[in-house]
Amino acid sequence: MATSPKRGLVLVADDDPTMRLLMLEMLAQVGLDAIEAEDGVKALACYHSVAPDLVLLDVDMPGMDGFSVCREIRRLETQASVPIIMVTGGDELESVTRAYEAGATDFVSKPINWPILGHRVLYVLRASDAISRLRIADAQHRAVLAAIPDTFFRMNKDGYYLDYEQGHEASSVFSTERCVGHHLSQVLPADIAGHMLEQVQTVLDTQHIRSLDYELPLPGPAPRVRQGEHPAPRPVRHFEARLVATGPDEVLGLVRDISERKRSEEQIRRLAYCDSLTGIPNRQAFLETLEAELARSRKANKKFAVLFMDLDAFKRINDTLGHDVGDHLLKAVSERLRETTRPGDLISRTEAATNLARLGGDEFTILIPDLERVEDALNVAHRVKEAMRRPFLLDAHEIFVTASIGISLYPEDGEDCNSLLKYADTAMYHAKNCGKNNAKLYSSSLTMQIMSHVKLEVGLRKALQNDELYLLYQPQIDVASAQITGFEALVRWRHPERGVISPTEFIPLAEETGLIVPIGEWVLRTACQQAMAWQTAGKPPVRVAVNLSAKQFKDENLMQIVLSVLHDTGLPAELLELELTEGTLMDDARATMATLEQLRGIGVYLSIDDFGTGYSSMNYLKRFDVRALKIDKSFISGLPLDSENAAITRAIIAMAHGLKMAVVAEGVETDAQLVLLEQYGCDMVQGYYLGHPSPPDTIHRMLASQTALAMT
């Protein structure tokens, strides 16, 4: 098939050989010759050596990116301006803006519409050729001008139009007759005319092309406004003017209607600043709003607040009901926040949408400008918190959630965006640590607490490898015989700087960070080794009890770990007691049953710890089929005077015996408590009255003493 006659030479610069091949093929289809360069440095060298008629330039290239190449070409140009088409990675506003600022003539976005690429290049070449010929002999080429959709004009250095040719596709906002022979200040608004005259002078002085954007209202009457409505903005058209010197005292101008491009850019901007799931502003939008409010409040000497909200236990909803329900919940939360944070509620003159944003996940922020009192921020937080507590009806599910909110204040807590957002986040985590469903103000002491928390976490991660953890053992006594029947292993941490740290401080941290799993495995192995060591030393076999956390119990490797520990230490399975809380057992009843059945299958002794503080359901106790219940010490501490605790304790013992379970009372501290528990038929007891948590050598002596006593 015969090809069209060649119409120009195009330099194609792209580091992707496939892209270069496709571009060359499309250019050949419309009769264009092309040379190729595989990076920015080679593209610049080709430009100098072959002087192409047009440059097709990819943005992302090694060595020298497309923006830099474009700027360098424009810097080195002495006469005619070669057209440069930039290939950007999508319709991103930032890339398009940077392309024009670098001096690009036009842009093509990826993915490229291949069939029209060659025709688009031809159009740009034709327009460029028209401008070049107009510089030489403008009057000779009116027909060419008439075929081009853009408007052209000639203007002298004083700002008077010498000629004006309206493009046939351009949107006219004023007639051509108003232009020729008139000063541009008679045609354009004063501010635009002044700016354009400055650019004319710059072009003549530097001999470089200059550009400026401006907008003009459409002719005709303003839109009619109904009673009670705010007046709509008057419709405008956006224009781009490019000026080039054609002599010492004249410039040639090309005016393009860029209204459609502006609309596209605005749409891109909306997409860039809008959260795709909820439709409210996203993190980037909030950060820019916060930056603007910071500048405004600093100038006006005003205060404002940043609220940082996080849903409590949102992950559980995703895990149990699925991510679709989670997404629907986030949309519903956003809508409820919109309703709750109306402008009046926010004490703001601006629209609520500018104050509310979703940062990501289940995190939301609210900006409260023009704050007069701290109580105002707390009131908004309280309304938000209460709004979240109302149930959400989603996909036949009634979902209940709560929210934790942190508040930072400008200028008290910080004078930059990062600090204010970080401190609001810090306060939010403090609210969670205080029981969730809370709102807390930031204070400098919180930062110290967070730093201490982080430092403690780092220390805990090193505690295992540095042998800083150790076990104490508290005896369990058979009430009828007063003999030691077993020991509960209790982990302790001897910190190299702080000394012994209470388990109430580091166990929750281990749970939070997941360190409880390796720590729990170490406790299990160490306790079993110690129980075997006592037997090897000739002491009677005793059962050792180890607490299992919820994370350990759900660990898919739990059975393998238990079997490995029993095999490696040689401890019989019946001498290992695993203690679980009611909450752990009830979290997923079906999975719990399967795990308990496996543990019972290998002969491990199972008990429920802290019984009475959770579900206390006889139905579930029958299904779980554990060997023993440990009555929580909170019920024992009031005995014998507290009649209610006495009744609860007696009922638990009776219920457990009815289910053929043994009962252990924790926290026994007086003889009177022991006597009462014996009357109620309690099987075993443990507590300070009977023995403190003690190191292995102390337990060794206790067992030796018991053995000697039994032999007498």
Automatic annotation (TrEMBL):
<feature type="modified residue" description="4-aspartylphosphate">
    <location>
        <position position="58"/>
    </location>
</feature>
<dbReference type="InterPro" id="IPR011006">
    <property type="entry name" value="CheY-like_superfamily"/>
</dbReference>
<feature type="domain" description="GGDEF">
    <location>
        <begin position="302"/>
        <end position="444"/>
    </location>
</feature>
<dbReference type="InterPro" id="IPR001789">
    <property type="entry name" value="Sig_transdc_resp-reg_receiver"/>
</dbReference>
<dbReference type="InterPro" id="IPR000160">
    <property type="entry name" value="GGDEF_dom"/>
</dbReference>
<protein>
    <submittedName>
        <fullName>EAL domain-containing protein</fullName>
    </submittedName>
</protein>
<dbReference type="InterPro" id="IPR043128">
    <property type="entry name" value="Rev_trsase/Diguanyl_cyclase"/>
</dbReference>
<dbReference type="InterPro" id="IPR035919">
    <property type="entry name" value="EAL_sf"/>
</dbReference>
<dbReference type="Pfam" id="PF00563">
    <property type="entry name" value="EAL"/>
</dbReference>
<dbReference type="InterPro" id="IPR001633">
    <property type="entry name" value="EAL_dom"/>
</dbReference>
<dbReference type="InterPro" id="IPR052155">
    <property type="entry name" value="Biofilm_reg_signaling"/>
</dbReference>
<feature type="domain" description="Response regulatory">
    <location>
        <begin position="9"/>
        <end position="125"/>
    </location>
</feature>
<feature type="domain" description="EAL">
    <location>
        <begin position="453"/>
        <end position="707"/>
    </location>
</feature>
<keyword id="KW-0597">Phosphoprotein</keyword>
<dbReference type="Pfam" id="PF00990">
    <property type="entry name" value="GGDEF"/>
</dbReference>
<dbReference type="Pfam" id="PF00072">
    <property type="entry name" value="Response_reg"/>
</dbReference>
<dbReference type="InterPro" id="IPR035965">
    <property type="entry name" value="PAS-like_dom_sf"/>
</dbReference>
<dbReference type="InterPro" id="IPR029787">
    <property type="entry name" value="Nucleotide_cyclase"/>
</dbReference>
<dbReference type="InterPro" id="IPR013656">
    <property type="entry name" value="PAS_4"/>
</dbReference>
<dbReference type="Pfam" id="PF08448">
    <property type="entry name" value="PAS_4"/>
</dbReference>
